[in-house]
Specification:
By secondary structure, this protein is of the alpha+beta class. It has a domain of 88 residues: Immunoglobulin-like. The chain contains one helix and seven strands; from the N terminus they run αβββββββ. Strands 1-2-7-6 form a four-stranded antiparallel β-sheet, with no helix packed on it. A three-stranded antiparallel β-sheet has the order 3-4-5, with no helix packed on it. It is flat, with a radius of gyration of 24 Å.
Length: 147
């Protein structure tokens, strides 16, 4: 058996590599929100009524022309672009936290949708998408017979 010199930096590098791998696996899960990323994604509320699935997205500072909504299978995608404001000549920023650039938010729909009946409206920075459910996706009450 050979003796090898101890190298603490080698052990730290190995530990760092394992930690990086763990973080990458944790934050790259498909259904996990990407809050640790530098990309901006709009906040979304998803609710349902008896016959409709409702998606509300906050898109402050945008107009309807800056946003597109698509559906493919059971995936609803909202994407768009928030334009960066032009800096004035005599204006110097101390801090700039507002996001600008493109964004995309994809949501897996939990029920089947009538894609030809989808309605999307945009008012005061809120995008409301009404997705009518198919007949088989709607909840139905089953009466219990007493014998």
């Amino acid at each position: 058996m050979e003796l090898m010199p101890w190298r603490p930096s080698g052990e730290l590098a190995s530990l760092r590599k394992e930690m990086d791998s763990l973080w990458n696996r944790f934050f790259s899960a498909a259904d996990f929100p990407r809050f640790a990323s530098e990309e901006w994604q709009p906040s979304v509320d998803i609710s349902e009524t008896k016959d409709t699935l409702l998606v509300k997205a906050e898109l402050p500072g945008l107009d309807a022309k800056d946003v597109s909504v698509t559906i493919s299978g059971d995936m609803l995608t909202i994407k768009g672009e928030k334009k960066q404001e032009k800096e004035k000549k005599d204006e110097h920023y101390y801090c700039s936290e507002r996001y600008s650039g493109t964004f995309q938010r994809t949501i897996r729909l939990p029920v089947n949708i009538k894609t030809d009946k989808i309605d999307a409206t945009f008012e005061k920075g809120i995008l409301l998408i009404a997705l009518p459910k198919t007949e088989d996706a709607q909840k139905k009450e089953i009466k219990i017979k007493v014998k």
